[in-house]
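Q: What changes when calcium ion is included in the input?
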Amino acid sequence: MTDFTPQPEDNVYDSNSSGNSEFKDLFNKNITRRDLISKSAGAAVALTLAATLTGCNDENNSSVNEGSPSVPAPEHSKAPSSLQFKTVDKNTLNAFTVPEGYQARVLYALGDPLTEGLAEWDDNNIPSGSSFALRSGDNHDGMSFFGMNKAKGNYDGSVSDEGLLVLNHEYINQAELHPSNNSIKAAIRAEDEVIREVNCHGVSILHVLKDPITQEVKINKSSLFNRRITAASKIEFSGPVKGHALLQTKLSPEGLFTLGTHNNCGNGYTPWGTYLTTEENFDGYLARNSNDDRDLQVEYALTRYKIKKGQSAQYKWNTPQASLLPQEMYQRWNSSITAATAAEDFRHSANSFGWIVEIDPFDNRQLPVKRTALGRFAHEDCRASRAMAGQALAFYMGDDSTGEYIYKYVSDAKWEVKDINGGYTAGDKYLNSGTLYVAKFDFDERSQQASGEWLELNIRDPRIAGYAAYQFADQADVLVHSRLAADALGATKMDRPEWCAVNPNNGEVYVTLTNNSNRGKAYPTDAANPRHYFDNDSGSTSLKGNINGHIIRLREQNEQTSATEFVWDIFLFGAEADALKNVNLSGLSDANDFSSPDGMWFDPRGVLWIQTDDGAYTDETNCMMLAALPGQTGDGQIAAAFSGSGTQTTPSGAILDDSKLRRFLTGPSGCEITGVTMTPDYKAIFVNVQHPGGIWPSNHPAALNSSKGIGTRPRSATVVITRINGKEIAAEALEQANSAKT
Ligand code: FEO
Ligand code: CA
Ligand code: CA
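A: The predicted holo structure follows.
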C-alpha cells in the first residue's frame, strides 16, 4: 500500500468548533501510532512530549530523474525571447488581477481543511486551535511544487498533473484568527488560542491534481500526503551543532531535537527532491525575564540576535495555564535561566531556531531535520545552485534584517544524479558537511571593477578565533552565532537580503535587497547599496534611505559553485516611474515600476519572477509580481546613484524595456505577494497572497474560488494562475514565433 492510499479512518474526523473535543476525538479513534504521526505529526508531538518517534526508513529509491527543478529538461529549457502577455496596470483594488486571457483560482486559504470531514473555515464559528494541525496555517509564503511519480509515490520533477505543493506559513494575523472575544490583549493568553497560533505557523504539504486539459488544479483531500508541520512538530538537529551544549534544553537534554519551526519565510528545494524551509524572525517569539542575567559575551550574542533581557514575547505563547498540553510546551517560549543547568530549562530555546529545515514531502514517517551546517540567522531564503555532476552544490541565503549579510553554503560532496529521491539520506550527504561563507562586495573606483569575495566562517580564521566581542568555543559555536563570525570577518552590510534566485542558463545568483530606511544614516552608502534618497512624490524632502530596494546579482569565478571570488552588478533598482533619474536608475516605466522586491524565483526556462512586499508605493499600487528576461552580470553601465547630498558610483545592469520586464499580476489591497512555483509544463503558476486587506478572498469570483470559507474576514491564500486557452504561462512570444513559421 502506498502512503497516499486513503485509510478508512481518514474521512471520519469531524470538526466541532467548540473547544478541543475534536482534538481529543482524534486521539480516541483507535488510530495506529504510525498513522497518527503520518497524518498529524504536529498535533501528535504536541500531545506526546516524551514520545520517541522511531522513524522507519522508507526504501531509498535511487532511480535517475532528469526532471529535477534545478536541472531543466532540454525540451523545457527554452525561454521566450520577449514578454508578450498584456501588462497588468498598477491599481489599489481589493482584487487579484491577472493579464487578459489568464485566470486566477483561489486554491487554499487560511483555515481550509486538509482532509475530508473537517468543517470549512467560518468567521462566526472559528475551528478549534488543535484542528489547525490539519488545516491551512496563516500568512502563506515560500512555496515549491514537486511532481510525483504516481506508481512509486515519490519525486519526479517531470510530472505536472500530480504532485505535492509545499508552502510556508510565516506568521499570523492575530485579529483575523480568533473569535472576536479573545485573549490577544490579555497578560495570560487562552490556551486554545495559543495552540491555534502555534499550529498556524510552519509548513503545509498538499497533494494536488491538475487536469491536463483544463489545467484546473485541485487538492486531493483524501490523500495521506496532506499534512502540516507546525511550531509544535518534533524536528531533529543534524550536522555539526547536533548534540552541542548550545542546543541542550529540558525537552532534549542531549541537544538532539527541538519542537517546531516558525517564521518560515522564503524557501528552497534540493536537486534530490526535498523542500527547504527557513526560520526568519524567530527572535520576537521568545521572552526573557528581566532578571535573566548572563555573562557579558553571552548577552552580547543574544542582543545581536535581538533577544534582549526583559523582552516579552510578541504573542505571549509562554503565558497560558496549561491544561491541554504539558506546561513545558509554553515555558519553552521563555529563553531564560530558570534552573541549575541548561539541560533543565529553556535558556537555549533561542538557539533551536534560526536554521534551515529540510522536509522530505514524500516521507511522512521520518522527522524533518534542522541542517545546522547552513548557519543560524534570520534565514529568508535558501536557493540551490545548478546541480552539475561532479561539482559541489552551493546554497545561497539571505539574512533579512537591516544591515545583515548574504551567505553561501558549499557542500563537501560533489553532486551525483543517483541521489535524486535519496530523501534525508541525501540531505545528510550534502547538507551536513560543507563550508559556510559570507559575502563581501568591493568596487574599485579607479578601474570601475566590481568584485567580491566569499569569506569562510571558520574558527581557524584568526579574525574569528580572536574576535574581541565574543569568544567562540568551537566551530559549532561559529555556526550558532554566524552573524557574529560574519561581523568579525568584515562582511558587507546589505539593505535587507531577502530571496535568492539562480539563473538556470548561466548559474548567476540574484538576491533581492528589499529596502533600508537607515541606508545613508547608520549605514553609509557603498557601491552595492548605493542609494539614499527621498520620495519626491510625497512632497517630503526628508531622506529615507533606500526606499524602494534593489536586486543585486553575481557570477562565480569560472562558474564554479565552490568559487571564493565573484563579479557582480545591480540587476534592477526599484523605483517609481516618475522618480528622479538618479533614483530610477533602471529606467522603469508604468509597465514595470515596482518597490521593495522580496520573493524571487527563476523558472527552469530562465524567466525571472519578482514579487514585492511594499509599504512605500502602496498609495499608488498594491504589491505585485513581475516577469523578467535578464541578461547577465556586467551587461550595463556605471551609474551615479542619488546618495544624500552627493552621488555614489555603482555598476548597474542593462536597462530593460517592457518586453523584458513587465507586470504580470497585482494582489488585493493590503497584501504582500510572495512564494512562486510552477508545474514543470509551465501551464500553472502558483503564488501566495499574504495578509490581504478588505474582504478578499470572499469577493473573488465564486467559480474560481476553491476555498469554501464562510464569512468576509480577509485570509491569506494560495492562488493558482492558468491561461484560459491552457497554454504555457508567459510563452506568448514562442507561440507567435511558431505560428509565423507555419
Ligand atoms: Fe519574511 Fe523578509 O520577509
Ligand atoms: Ca510615492
Ligand atoms: Ca519575505
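Observations recorded in class: Residues 170, 265, 280, 380, 400, 498 surround MU-OXO-diiron (ligand 1) (CB under 6 Å).
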